[in-house]
Amino acid sequence: MADEDDDFHPGDGDSQTYTLKAGDIRKGGYIVIKGRPCKVVEVSISKTGKHGHDKCHFFAVDIFTSEKLEDIVPSSHDCDVPVVKVTAYDLIDILEDGSVTVMGDDGVVKTDVKLPTDEALLKAGIKEGRKMVVSVISAMGEYMITAVRDAAPN
Question: What is the mean pLDDT of residues 90-113?
């Protein structure tokens, strides 16, 4: 029997999703619906007849587009769950195509981050020369800024 890895966490490695039983997914968690990473806003579980399965009815919101989605899945079936990470990056520049250039603590530069809806704050900060830090949510190969703050002075 192989040794179990006590430090294993779902989503470790390069995988963009992992599987979880539908009955184990709760409000506030994440699920993939129609190929999109979503945050679950409500779950209702319906009991069925004596030969049927319990069904989970998920109401969720796409974490990048805010589109409302729903799905019904038997509670014993596997669902894909996106690996969602929130990371802080230094804001470098705003590009003309509407994307943002950011740099992580490791020195890696990303240029495929979407602007948030409150882009005026970012543009003003860049124009004034302020050092700003952005929180970026990532899932399934997509990235989006969720928060902006001034960097703490050294």
Answer: 84
